[in-house]
Amino acid sequence: MIGFVLADLRRLWAGSLVVVLLIALATALGVAVTMQERALRLGSARAADKFDLVIGAPGSETQLVLSSIFLQPSPLPLVDGGVLPRLLADPRVASAAPVGFGDSFGGYAVVGTSTGLVGQLEQLAEGRVFATLGEAVAGAAVDLPLGYAVKPTHGLAELGGHAHTELAYRIVGRLKPTDTAWDRAILVPMQAVWSLHGMETEHDDADGHHDHDEAASGAAADHPAIDANAALDEDWSHATPGLPAILVKPKSIADAYKLRQDYRNTTTLAVFPGEVLTNLYATLGDAKRVLVGVTSGAQVLVAAAILLVTILHVGQRRRQIGALRAFGAPRTAVFIIVWSELFALIAAGVLIGFALGFCAAKFIAGYLSGESGVAMPVMFAAGDGFLVSVILAFAAVLAVLPAVLAYRQSPAAALRA
Questions:
Q1: What is the rounded distance in angstroms from the CA atom of residue 294 to the CA atom of residue 30?
Q2: Alpha-carbon gap, residue 16 to 227, rounded angstroms
Q3: Three-state SS for 146?
Q4: What DSSP element (H or E) covers 313?
Q5: How far, CA to CA in Å, does 254 sit from each of 52, 242, 261, 269?
Q6: Pair 184, 372: CB distance under 8 Å
Q7: What is the pLDDT of residue 405?
Q8: CA-based diameter of the chain, in Å?
Q9: Percent of residues in the chain assigned helix, strand, coil, to nearest 5
Q10: What are phi and psi of 330, to 5 degrees?
């Protein structure tokens, strides 16, 4: 009987191939959406795990996390520079590091920070940590060799950013992979970022806002050259310029919650990156439900079309089925043959669709990871096996209707047709 089924499928290979491809494409669409959304959640959650608490100026929590953790270019209000030494003196704080951004080079973000944060991110794969204003540490995904001279651009060059001519950083070290956006960043001393943007003598205006944008816009025009060999002074008790964000590592979970409570006020904003991502996931979940609904609708339409085509196909094969019955084939054998053919086609389409969906999700995740630096793991979960079982069970039920039509068909009437 199996040989008969295989021979029948080979004889009708063109129609069988179309059916399998339709099912495979409909299945692949749903699998790709589900697996890519899962990869985005896992990748972003793992990227945020390295950062316990972020403190910045009052504003959007989501934008603070996206800019400071995922290094998405966006202007942030500056928090008063006095917050950093206050945090470092707090017995509940294990470490606190400033973060300054706004510059770029060759598509990589140039981020100002401290030597402490460089060590906290990951060990060095080669070279050493920066020790002077003109030195930098490259992320693992930065395709620049040690010794390369980096001349940063304020903002994005394609959006009209201007080049800084006062200082060129020399790459002296490279981090091991962190699977975060910081893999595509060039880390430089925070003091150098302040100097490049004319913020050593920063002052507040009448409304209490920092004049960082004005200083930055005029830095390239009239700021004198900066001594690249000047040694770093990370005595943050003298840090007065404002900061876009401060990355804090509390000594305990209890300290983390107390610090967040203390620094959520009218002058500062403290957030847990994981908590902000959870809220963001809720928004993404709504979009996912819409996409899953669309793909499910497409799969139902494909299933209905295949069922209609199969019923018509059974009608066209009435004489063949009648001949089988006339030669002594029992009704049960006819039922099994028709059911087996349809179920084999649907099962093949589903399995191929899962493979295609997995490959599509891997391709999309690889592209997004290359652009953002955040590793997005594409993998099957335990629930996927249950989903395959449900789909195959539905396919088994779907194949019953054409098989019943063939089962009930009279051999005499079929041969007269």
A1: 9
A2: 73
A3: coil
A4: helix 273-316
A5: 12, 28, 11, 18
A6: yes
A7: 67
A8: 101
A9: 55, 15, 30
A10: -70, 160
pLDDT at 12: 63
Alpha-carbon Rg of the chain, whole angstroms?
Answer: 31
Cα gap 3→17, rounded to integer Å: 19
Residue 360: alpha-carbon gap to chain centroid: 14
Give the percent of the chain with pLDDT over 90. 23
278 sits in the region (left: phi over 0; alpha: psi -120 to 50; else beta) called alpha
Cα separation, 163 vs 236, whole angstroms: 28
pLDDT band at 330 (very low <50, low <70, confident <90, very high): low
Whole-number Å distance between alpha carbons of 183 and 177: 6
pTM for the structure as a whole: 0.71
The runs of H, that is alpha helices, within 184-264 are: 190-196, 212-222, 253-262
Asked if residue 137 has pLDDT above 90, the reply is yes
**Pair of tokens at residue 198:** 């004319």
Q: Where are the alpha helices (DSSP H) in 152-235?
A: 190-196, 212-222
**pLDDT for residue 408:** 63
In 149-275, where do the E strands start and end?
149-150, 153-154, 162-163, 169-175, 185-189, 245-250, 269-271
For the segment 250-261, what is each residue's pLDDT rounded down to a tens digit? 999 999 999 999
Q: Which residue has the tokens 């000594």?
A: 251
Alpha carbon separation from 40 to 120, 264, 379 (Å, rounded): 24, 29, 11
DSSP H/E element including 55: strand 53-56
Count of residues for the chain? Answer: 417
For 208, phi and psi rounded to 5 degrees?
85, 10
